[in-house]
What does this fold into?
Amino acid sequence: MRGPHGGYSLSRNYKRITAEDIMHAARRKDDGNIPLPVSSLINEVVRPALDDAERSFATALRRISVEELARAREKQK
It folds into this structure.
């Protein structure tokens, strides 16, 4: 939830929220599905490849906490 002073109010401790959680929360907002035409090539080849890529990406994001993102931001200042 958007906070009153430009921050965010989190549903749980920021140390337990991952970048993957953020990705899934953002995707729910606009459905997050990539519109693809219906065809056997899309259904049998393209969609499975995209699903595999998304799983790999989500696994990588799962390793990054909001705490780590905040620390990285502080180092940039």
